[in-house]
Specification:
single chain, about 375 residues, Purple Acid Phosphatase, chain A, domain 2, 6-stranded mixed β-sheet, 13 helices
């Protein structure tokens, strides 16, 4: 039994035009046979279907939408399941949530990780594939897309909730797959917190844990009796003006469930670089890709190296945090002037320490978030 899992799908720019015209082959034709050959295939649907009346929610960052053709294109290419737990599923409120799931129903596509309330969004998807039963649990880190008892959205990352979901699924299913949308964008490593959480999912009974969201691929590790993949990269996310080539690289994860173990294969591709298409990497590109995966894995497997890598990442983020928290103004012109050293920091040391105390403490952090949400 072979499964394929793909990363972030959001038809934009050149891709959006082709799909809205019903021209699916130029974008997906080269990899259609790979998807068709699998027994079950999953992709992260990172936008909201909009039919006309839906309104954007208030959030930071862009509200991402698509037409029903984006879903029809996935059906055409052979996908059977859409994961919906991500930071853009609720971009158009309950109307967008309903329109997206309704479109999945029309095209007979499974979906998991989203719903019109928290109870529905947190449901585990169970499918019988050949002679095996598979449970799929999908969740995402907390942003503006999380479902509540009062409105729709995504299943939130909550290790306690996921623990019980895994335990329950393991009692009746042959395999449990947890798919998480999280991590730091453009950062090719898991944070130590992510690694600890995903290892905990394996210890709880998950056979495979898969992550996406960073817009670049990451590595993997075999942990105890499970497999953890820390980043698949973009599947189809066209940004012609984006200068970072890692945005355009990703891989299919092929999982082969045998009677005694789970084999896997990474199938790397280039998406929307020269053309609005997804194509398999050339032999030379393949070599570079797997050498990079080897380098990333060497750091993931070493706790000290991973911690050092993450510390360096946080240090590089300090500048933006200073501008965000230490200045009453935040735009690109202020950033440029700040880099020249012409604007002093406004935040006092005392204020920094107070913020640090509140933000690092699990009991105080909700107080900040509650205050900001009441702005």
């Amino acid at each position: 039994m072979e499964l394929i899992i793909a990363g972030d799908y959001c038809p934009r720019a050149r891709v959006s035009k082709l799909l809205d015209d019903g021209d699916y082959y130029p974008v997906l034709g080269q990899i259609k046979s790979i998807i068709d050959a699998s027994d079950y295939s999953i992709v992260n649907f990172e936008c909201s279907v909009v039919k006309g009346a839906e309104e954007k929610i208030e959030k930071c960052g862009e509200n991402l939408s698509c037409t029903v053709n984006a879903v029809e294109a996935l059906k055409w290419s052979g996908f059977k399941c859409l994961t919906l737990a991500n930071n853009h599923f609720r971009d158009f409120g309950d109307e967008g949530v309903f329109a997206t799931q309704e479109t999945c129903t029309v095209y007979e596509l499974d979906n998991v990780g989203g719903g019109l309330n928290l109870k529905l969004a947190s449901k585990t998807l169970v499918r019988q594939i050949k002679d095996r039963s598979i449970a799929i649990i999908n969740c995402c880190e907390h942003e503006f897309s999380i479902a509540t008892q009062q409105h729709g959205g995504c299943n939130p990352l909550n290790p306690i909730s996921q623990y019980y979901a895994i335990k329950e699924a393991k009692e009746t299913c042959d395999y449990v797959i947890v798919i998480v949308h999280g991590g730091n964008e453009y950062y090719a490593f898991p944070s130590p917190r992510m690694q600890e959480t995903y290892r905990f999912f394996v210890d709880s009974g998950a056979d495979v844990v898969v992550n996406h969201h960073q817009h670049c691929y990451s590595g993997y590790e075999e942990y105890h009796n499970g497999l953890i993949f820390y980043g698949l990269g973009n599947f189809c996310f066209d940004e012609p003006e984006f200068p970072d080539l890692s945005w355009n690289e990703g891989f299919f994860l092929k999982l082969d469930f045998n009677t005694s173990n789970i084999d896997f294969e990474l199938v790397p591709y280039i998406q929307c670089r020269e053309k609005p298409e997804i194509r398999l990497m050339s032999p030379q590109e393949n070599t570079i890709f797997f050498n990079r995966i080897k380098e990333i894995n060497a750091i993931i497997e070493d706790d000290e190296k991973l911690a050092l890598e993450y510390k360096q990442f946080l240090n590089q983020s300090n500048y933006n945090m200073e501008m965000l928290l230490g200045s009453p103004f935040y735009n690109r012109w202020v950033l440029k002037i700040k880099k020249l050293g012409l604007i002093p920091t406004i935040m006092s040391r005392k204020r920094k320490l107070i913020l640090q105390a509140y933000m690092q403490c699990e009991s105080h952090y909700p107080k900040i978030m509650n205050y900001l949400s009441k702005r």
